[in-house]
Amino acid sequence: MKKSEKNTLREKTPEELQGMVAELRDSMLKGRFSVALEGKTMGVKYRAQRRQIARISTILSQKSAGTSPTATAAPNQAPAKASDAAAKKPARAKKSSADKAKA
Q1: What is the CATH number of the domain that holds 50?
Q2: Alpha-carbon distance 67 to 58, whole Å?
Q3: How far is Cα 55 from Cα 49, in angstroms, rounded to an integer?
Q4: Is 47 a domain residue?
């Protein structure tokens, strides 16, 4: 799923998101009935709907907890690099083979 599609989900209200989940679950139920009664297969569509429900549920739980990624991320702040963390650590003195033999 594209980031722009995820952002459009994040912009929606919790009521709209819950309505989308209800629609997806209803279509999944109808799909299971059609598989049982008519022998049709849902294929990849069923998996995509499950994943979409999981995405929406995650966004809903983030909104209720107040930890939405768009709300907490600072737009002008760059993420810390691993090299920055390594630069802060003091350098360890390497033991030579003569020092190892003495120990």
Answers
A1: 1.10.287
A2: 11
A3: 10
A4: yes
CA 44, CA 86: separation in Å to the nearest integer?
44
Is 3 within the bounds of a domain?
A: yes
The pair of three-digit structure tokens given for residue 66, joined into one six-digit string:
């107040």
pLDDT in tens, 5-52: 888 899 999 999 999 999 999 999 999 998 888 888 888 999 999 999
Number of domains forming the structure of the chain: 1
Three-state helix/strand/coil letters over 8-35: HHHHCCHHHHHHHHHHHHHHHHHHHHHH
Cα(60)–Cα(26) distance, rounded to whole angstroms?
19
| 23 conformational bin, left if phi > 0, alpha if psi -120 to 50, beta if neither | alpha
